[in-house]
Write a structure and sequence with these properties.
alpha+beta; 60s Ribosomal Protein L30, Chain: A; five-stranded mixed sheet; four-stranded antiparallel sheet; 2 helices; globular
Length: about 170
Protein backbone atom coordinates (compact mmCIF):
# COMPACT_ATOMS: atom_id res chain seq x y z
CA UNK A 1 0.00 0.00 0.00
CA UNK A 2 1.46 3.32 -1.04
CA UNK A 3 1.12 6.52 1.03
CA UNK A 4 -1.44 7.78 -1.52
CA UNK A 5 -3.69 4.79 -0.66
CA UNK A 6 -3.78 5.56 3.06
CA UNK A 7 -6.86 7.63 3.98
CA UNK A 8 -6.09 10.85 5.83
CA UNK A 9 -6.75 10.77 9.57
CA UNK A 10 -10.11 12.12 10.69
CA UNK A 11 -9.77 15.52 12.38
CA UNK A 12 -10.56 15.08 16.06
CA UNK A 13 -10.42 17.13 19.15
CA UNK A 14 -10.19 15.99 22.68
CA UNK A 15 -13.36 14.38 23.94
CA UNK A 16 -13.81 16.82 26.85
CA UNK A 17 -14.12 20.56 26.12
CA UNK A 18 -12.88 22.84 28.90
CA UNK A 19 -14.17 26.30 29.77
CA UNK A 20 -13.47 28.80 26.99
CA UNK A 21 -12.40 26.07 24.57
CA UNK A 22 -13.78 24.66 21.32
CA UNK A 23 -13.82 21.03 20.27
CA UNK A 24 -14.69 19.58 16.87
CA UNK A 25 -15.00 16.03 15.58
CA UNK A 26 -16.02 14.31 12.37
CA UNK A 27 -17.10 10.80 11.53
CA UNK A 28 -17.93 9.53 15.00
CA UNK A 29 -17.38 10.19 18.67
CA UNK A 30 -18.75 12.21 21.54
CA UNK A 31 -17.87 15.72 22.69
CA UNK A 32 -18.54 16.52 26.36
CA UNK A 33 -18.55 19.44 28.74
CA UNK A 34 -20.11 20.72 31.98
CA UNK A 35 -21.77 24.14 32.21
CA UNK A 36 -23.37 26.35 34.84
CA UNK A 37 -23.79 30.00 33.82
CA UNK A 38 -21.60 29.25 30.80
CA UNK A 39 -23.39 28.07 27.66
CA UNK A 40 -22.50 25.09 25.53
CA UNK A 41 -22.89 26.02 21.87
CA UNK A 42 -23.35 22.92 19.71
CA UNK A 43 -23.11 23.23 15.93
CA UNK A 44 -23.95 20.13 13.91
CA UNK A 45 -23.56 19.48 10.18
CA UNK A 46 -25.61 16.31 9.70
CA UNK A 47 -24.61 15.83 6.04
CA UNK A 48 -20.92 15.74 7.00
CA UNK A 49 -21.33 13.87 10.31
CA UNK A 50 -19.47 16.70 12.02
CA UNK A 51 -20.03 18.57 15.27
CA UNK A 52 -18.48 21.47 17.12
CA UNK A 53 -18.83 22.34 20.80
CA UNK A 54 -17.83 25.70 22.29
CA UNK A 55 -17.86 26.32 26.06
CA UNK A 56 -18.88 30.01 26.11
CA UNK A 57 -18.18 31.89 29.33
CA UNK A 58 -18.99 35.53 28.49
CA UNK A 59 -21.24 37.32 25.98
CA UNK A 60 -18.67 39.77 24.54
CA UNK A 61 -14.91 39.80 24.06
CA UNK A 62 -14.65 43.61 24.12
CA UNK A 63 -11.64 43.33 21.84
CA UNK A 64 -9.82 40.59 23.81
CA UNK A 65 -10.98 37.64 21.70
CA UNK A 66 -8.67 34.94 23.08
CA UNK A 67 -9.37 32.20 23.57
CA UNK A 68 -12.15 32.59 20.98
CA UNK A 69 -14.33 29.90 22.60
CA UNK A 70 -14.62 31.99 25.75
CA UNK A 71 -16.81 34.71 24.22
CA UNK A 72 -20.12 34.42 22.36
CA UNK A 73 -19.08 37.05 19.80
CA UNK A 74 -15.99 35.07 18.77
CA UNK A 75 -17.02 31.47 19.56
CA UNK A 76 -19.66 31.10 16.83
CA UNK A 77 -17.39 32.18 13.98
CA UNK A 78 -14.41 30.18 15.25
CA UNK A 79 -16.48 27.03 15.81
CA UNK A 80 -17.84 27.34 12.27
CA UNK A 81 -14.33 27.84 10.89
CA UNK A 82 -12.94 24.81 12.73
CA UNK A 83 -15.94 22.70 11.74
CA UNK A 84 -15.52 23.59 8.05
CA UNK A 85 -11.79 22.89 8.28
CA UNK A 86 -12.37 19.50 9.93
CA UNK A 87 -15.01 18.54 7.34
CA UNK A 88 -12.85 19.77 4.45
CA UNK A 89 -15.52 22.21 3.26
CA UNK A 90 -15.59 25.94 2.50
CA UNK A 91 -18.99 26.27 4.15
CA UNK A 92 -21.47 24.00 5.90
CA UNK A 93 -25.18 23.95 6.57
CA UNK A 94 -25.47 23.69 10.35
CA UNK A 95 -28.02 23.62 13.10
CA UNK A 96 -27.40 24.78 16.66
CA UNK A 97 -28.32 23.70 20.15
CA UNK A 98 -27.77 25.70 23.36
CA UNK A 99 -27.36 24.28 26.86
CA UNK A 100 -26.60 26.14 30.10
CA UNK A 101 -27.00 29.76 31.05
CA UNK A 102 -28.05 28.96 34.61
CA UNK A 103 -28.19 31.60 37.31
CA UNK A 104 -25.49 30.23 39.59
CA UNK A 105 -24.81 33.32 41.69
CA UNK A 106 -27.56 34.92 43.78
CA UNK A 107 -25.53 38.09 44.33
CA UNK A 108 -25.71 39.23 40.67
CA UNK A 109 -27.63 42.39 39.88
CA UNK A 110 -29.16 43.14 36.51
CA UNK A 111 -29.42 40.46 33.83
CA UNK A 112 -27.57 37.34 35.06
CA UNK A 113 -24.45 36.45 33.05
CA UNK A 114 -25.95 33.11 32.01
CA UNK A 115 -28.94 34.82 30.43
CA UNK A 116 -26.64 37.37 28.76
CA UNK A 117 -24.67 34.47 27.24
CA UNK A 118 -27.84 32.83 25.86
CA UNK A 119 -29.17 36.13 24.45
CA UNK A 120 -25.85 36.92 22.75
CA UNK A 121 -25.65 33.47 21.13
CA UNK A 122 -29.29 33.63 19.98
CA UNK A 123 -28.67 37.01 18.35
CA UNK A 124 -25.46 35.92 16.59
CA UNK A 125 -26.93 32.63 15.35
CA UNK A 126 -30.03 34.49 14.13
CA UNK A 127 -27.89 37.01 12.26
CA UNK A 128 -26.08 34.11 10.54
CA UNK A 129 -29.30 32.28 9.72
CA UNK A 130 -28.33 29.22 11.77
CA UNK A 131 -31.47 27.66 13.25
CA UNK A 132 -31.52 26.74 16.93
CA UNK A 133 -33.19 23.32 16.97
CA UNK A 134 -33.02 22.71 20.72
CA UNK A 135 -32.20 24.37 23.99
CA UNK A 136 -32.12 23.64 27.69
CA UNK A 137 -31.24 26.95 29.30
CA UNK A 138 -31.78 28.88 32.50
CA UNK A 139 -32.63 27.54 35.92
CA UNK A 140 -30.17 27.40 38.79
CA UNK A 141 -28.40 24.07 38.30
CA UNK A 142 -25.29 22.99 36.44
CA UNK A 143 -25.56 20.60 33.50
CA UNK A 144 -23.35 17.87 32.05
CA UNK A 145 -23.77 17.21 28.35
CA UNK A 146 -22.61 14.83 25.65
CA UNK A 147 -22.89 15.50 21.90
CA UNK A 148 -23.14 12.55 19.49
CA UNK A 149 -21.09 13.64 16.48
CA UNK A 150 -23.01 11.50 13.98
CA UNK A 151 -26.59 12.35 14.94
CA UNK A 152 -26.17 15.71 16.67
CA UNK A 153 -28.19 14.41 19.63
CA UNK A 154 -27.27 16.17 22.87
CA UNK A 155 -27.83 14.28 26.11
CA UNK A 156 -28.14 16.69 29.04
CA UNK A 157 -27.98 15.71 32.70
CA UNK A 158 -29.17 18.52 34.99
CA UNK A 159 -27.95 18.29 38.59
CA UNK A 160 -30.77 16.91 40.75
CA UNK A 161 -33.27 17.03 37.87
CA UNK A 162 -32.60 14.04 35.60
CA UNK A 163 -31.63 13.56 31.95
CA UNK A 164 -33.09 14.94 28.71
CA UNK A 165 -32.05 14.47 25.10
CA UNK A 166 -32.21 17.15 22.41
CA UNK A 167 -32.59 15.46 19.03
Amino acid sequence: MSPADVPPPQPRSRDSVAIGQIGVATGSGVLRTFVGSCVALVLHARSRRAAGLAHVMLPASNGKGTPPGKYADTAVAETLRLLCEAAGEQSLSCTAKLVGGATMFAFQSGIPIGEQNVLALERILGDLGIPITGRICGGSHGRRLAVDVVTGAVTVETAGQGTETLL
